[in-house]
Automatic annotation (TrEMBL):
<keyword id="KW-0460">Magnesium</keyword>
<protein>
    <recommendedName>
        <fullName>phosphoenolpyruvate--protein phosphotransferase</fullName>
        <ecNumber>2.7.3.9</ecNumber>
    </recommendedName>
</protein>
<keyword id="KW-0418">Kinase</keyword>
<dbReference type="InterPro" id="IPR040442">
    <property type="entry name" value="Pyrv_kinase-like_dom_sf"/>
</dbReference>
<dbReference type="InterPro" id="IPR000121">
    <property type="entry name" value="PEP_util_C"/>
</dbReference>
<dbReference type="InterPro" id="IPR006318">
    <property type="entry name" value="PTS_EI-like"/>
</dbReference>
<dbReference type="Pfam" id="PF05524">
    <property type="entry name" value="PEP-utilisers_N"/>
</dbReference>
<dbReference type="InterPro" id="IPR036637">
    <property type="entry name" value="Phosphohistidine_dom_sf"/>
</dbReference>
<dbReference type="InterPro" id="IPR036618">
    <property type="entry name" value="PtsI_HPr-bd_sf"/>
</dbReference>
<dbReference type="InterPro" id="IPR023151">
    <property type="entry name" value="PEP_util_CS"/>
</dbReference>
<keyword id="KW-0598">Phosphotransferase system</keyword>
<keyword id="KW-0479">Metal-binding</keyword>
<keyword id="KW-0762">Sugar transport</keyword>
<dbReference type="InterPro" id="IPR050499">
    <property type="entry name" value="PEP-utilizing_PTS_enzyme"/>
</dbReference>
<feature type="domain" description="GAF">
    <location>
        <begin position="24"/>
        <end position="170"/>
    </location>
</feature>
<dbReference type="InterPro" id="IPR008731">
    <property type="entry name" value="PTS_EIN"/>
</dbReference>
<dbReference type="InterPro" id="IPR015813">
    <property type="entry name" value="Pyrv/PenolPyrv_kinase-like_dom"/>
</dbReference>
Length: 757
């Protein structure tokens, strides 16, 4: 019996030799199509490459008229070749002329060929061209021949991606692969970054496409599949942790896929055809992605991303690659491009090489974005298609101001952005100068500009940004970036480091605020799945029900703050009883430590966050019950407006500077003054100069923001005649003004007075 895999294997071996030879690109392509035709006993073999103008151009042929090379062309969707490219599916026809899509190109002389096999040239699910074989006789190509042609197409895809074939393109008719592309999404963090693409889930760089020994590769695949299955079983069996609900479902799906015979068979087949195990995973995944691209069923699309993730895991197993080795090969100006990403994963990248982050999904308040903000890197999100259009090493610009991304930018655009970066650097210099000036409005009112933090990476920024202290230390971030609960000693160490770095400047520690959108994968949360997690078992509700968690944290805080002032703040308070309960736990810990003669804080202040609207109707009682309050405007706004803060469809729908919300904020500021209780605001609102200006006008004298915002807010503040703004706001907010365009009015107020916003 004929060894079915011998043909493809011989062909791949030939291709490997051809790739290694020092040939001109056209010569190499010509030899490749000749070898494919010979190997497949076909009279014709042609390669069409997709150009940036969506035209498929004949790049090489044996059998068709050689003069048609670089002349014959078809639009995407036109003819058989255009149909294959548009659908990303192979066509196998014994009589091509009878196919309804057949389009006759007279310059090629192809009318004498009847049978036709065409496959898309795919890379990461993206079509780069079409590879065709034809025969005069009417025949139907076998499955193994289709497979062989697809495998060959993959090699060609790598040649296109490497830029080798692109050198043959004429000016103005560049390949689709090198086409500049721009994306518009949302700005998640300000700043502009120029650099080179680093795909977060790296597509394998197929330096090693061809295997030397199929049996050995099959063994490697088996071993890696084995460890992959084991690791999934392992995760599923860890019943003590939080692999319930969604997590569990995803893992069950992974387990099913990892044992899917069809998948494994396709992988093995690709290896038998001569690919390495890595290249086989890439090929099978790419075929599958291309087919699924046209599917609209959200469930199936979701499963596809599970499959993608699984394939990536398998690749990592095969390549023995962890985050450390990825970081080593990082360019100096890395811009990470990812579908979505966990906060901990971002921290695996060395900060000094990161110039930006591009996310296909995500929301401005998701945790990876919070961490990116803490690291001070520009972030643009909701960039649909950015991952599949990018290649590692592509030049890229992230514009975190406009919320745009430019991939493979034209030189003039790149030059304009380089100028922008220089301009921003000059402005940063200006902000540094401002640090020496007192934090006062133009009419001499002192304002505390504090910063938000939560991780050790934030701490150097305290001095750099010139913050008056830390207005919100999000202690849950330490929990979120860990893989198990941080031990009491680790918590204490972080808190001590924070206080040491602050050197007497005030620091407000918020007790862990988990639940809702802040999930700890290792924490088995609520027994039942929550339908509305934002309104669910989270923050203080959760810690009062699990007092062990709170006690450990309070003890760590008390010890770390020995001999200094300690400020503790409770998140998501809904009723005053919660404060009393927390105070009891704190008092007990204080008594406990005192009994064992621990060095206690010199003073202990307890505060509450105002995030739940119920507090708005008990502001005076609240102010009397605590030592200070801080407005969490992110949550307060989402609950006042009934608009999920993570839902990007609602991101621009309601305005934080609308009259009703400004009135809410004013009520809180007034209650603070009335009760002599210090009020701070620590949501994202504090960090935008225009909203920070409004806050000052409403009576806030202490606001806390990401460190990068302190410079711009201070620049605004020192030019602000606060008295004028106050009367302006009083006038506008007290009358029947519900539909006033407050944002525009505030902007005009600033413009008239040359206040930089
Ligand atoms: C807020 O809700 O405004 C806030 C500061 O807390 P977080 O963003 O951590 O929920
Ligand atoms: Mg909050």
């Amino acid at each position: 019996m004929r060894d079915m895999a011998a043909g493809p294997r011989v062909l791949l071996k030939r291709l490997r030799e051809l790739m290694a030879e020092p040939l001109e690109p056209q010569e190499r392509l010509d030899r490749i199509v000749r070898d494919i035709a010979a190997n497949m006993v076909a009279e014709v073999c042609s390669l069409y490459v997709l150009r940036a103008d969506s035209v498929l151009e004949l790049y090489a042929t044996v059998g068709l008229n050689p003069n048609a090379v670089h002349l014959a062309q078809l639009r995407l969707g036109q003819g058989l070749v255009g149909t294959i490219a548009a659908s990303a599916r192979a066509l196998n026809l014994s009589n091509a002329q009878e196919h309804p899509a057949f389009a006759y190109l007279p310059e090629t002389g192809e009318e004498i060929y009847h049978s036709f096999l065409g496959v898309p040239v795919l890379r990461a699910g993206r079509t780069l061209g079409v590879l065709v074989v034809q025969n005069k006789t009417m025949r139907h190509y076998r499955d193994d021949e289709i497979e062989a042609l697809e495998t060959t197409a993959m090699v060609i895809a790598e040649m296109i991606a490497s830029g080798d074939i692109g050198r043959l393109s004429r000016p103005g008719l560049e390949l689709d692969m090198s086409r500049p592309a721009s994306f518009t999404g949302l700005s998640f963090n300000e700043g502009v970054g120029l650099g080179h693409v680093v795909l977060h889930e790296p597509r394998i760089v197929v330096t090693n496409l061809f295997n030397e020994d199929s049996e050995e590769e099959l063994r490697r695949l088996e071993v890696s599949l084995g460890s992959l299955r084991l690791s999934i079983d392992d995760m599923l069996e860890r019943r003590d942790v939080a692999f319930e609900g969604e997590h569990r479902e995803v893992l069950e799906a992974y387990r099913m896929f990892a044992n899917d015979r069809g998948w494994v068979r396709r992988l093995e087949e690709a290896i038998r055809n001569g690919l390495t195990a890595e290249a086989a995973v890439e090929k099978v995944q790419s075929d599958m992605r291309a087919r699924m691209l046209h599917m609209t069923d959200p469930y199936l699309r979701e499963r596809m991303s599970d499959f993608d993730d699984l394939a990536n895991r398998l690749l990592r197993q095969l390549m023995g690659r962890g985050p450390e080795t990825i970081a080593e090969s990082l360019p100096k100006d890395a811009i990470i491009v990812a579908r979505s990403m966990g906060a901990a994963e971002l921290l695996d990248y060395p900060r000094d090489r990161l110039r930006g982050l591009v996310l296909e999904d995500g929301a401005p308040t998701s945790h990876v974005v919070i961490v990116a903000r803490a690291m001070g890197i520009p972030v643009a999100g909701q960039m649909k298609g950015a991952v599949s259009m990018s290649e590692n090493g592509d030049p890229i610009i992230v514009d975190g101001v406009e919320g745009t991304v430019h991939l493979r930018p034209q030189p003039d655009l790149e030059a304009a952005y380089a100028e922008k970066v220089r301009f921003r650097a000059r402005r940063q210099e200006l902000y540094r100068e401002l640090r020496k000036k007192p934090s006062e409005t133009k009419d001499g009112v002192k304002v505390d500009l504090l910063m938000n933090a939560g991780l050790a990476v934030d701490l150097p920024q305290l001095a750099e940004a010139g913050a008056a202290g830390i207005g919100l230390f999000r202690t849950e971030l330490q929990f979120m970036v860990a893989s198990t609960f941080p031990r009491a000693e680790a918590q204490e160490k972080l808190y001590r480091d924070v206080l040491d770095t602050a050197r007497g400047r005030p620091v407000t520690f918020r007790t862990i605020d988990i639940g809702g959108d802040k999930v700890l994968p290792y924490f088995k949360g609520s027994v039942q799945e929550e339908e509305n997690p934002a309104l669910g078992w989270r923050a203080i509700r959760l810690t009062l029900d699990r007092p062990g968690l709170l006690r450990t944290q309070i003890r760590a805080l008390l010890k770390a703050a020995g001999g200094r002032e300690l400020k503790v703040m409770l998140p998501m308070v809904t009723e005053l009883g919660e404060i009393a309960q927390a105070r009891e736990i704190i008092d007990r810990e204080v008594r406990h430590l005192a009994r064992f003669a621990h060095h206690l804080p010199t003073s202990l202040k307890l505060g509450a966050m105002i995030e739940v609207p119920s507090l708005l109707w008990q502001l005076d009682e609240l102010m009397q019950a605590v030592d200070f309050v801080s407005v969490g405007s992110n949550d307060l706004f989402q609950f006042v407006m009934a608009a999920d803060r993570g839902n990007t469809q609602l991101a621009d729908r309601f305005d934080t500077l609308s009259v009703p919300f400004l009135r809410v904020l004013k009520q809180i500021a007034d209650a603070g003054i009335r009760n002599h209780t210090p009020v701070t605001l620590c949501g994202e609102l504090a960090g935008k100069p225009i909203s920070a200006m409004a806050l000052l006008g409403l009576g806030y004298r202490s606001i806390s923001m990401s460190p990068a915002s302190i410079g711009p807010v201070k620049a605004m503040l020192t030019e602000l005649p606060l008295g004028e703004l106050k009367s302006f706001l009083d006038d506008n907010l007290s009358g029947p003004a519900a539909s006033l365009p407050m944002r525009a009015l505030l902007q005009a107020f600033a413009d008239d007075r040359s206040i930089p916003l």
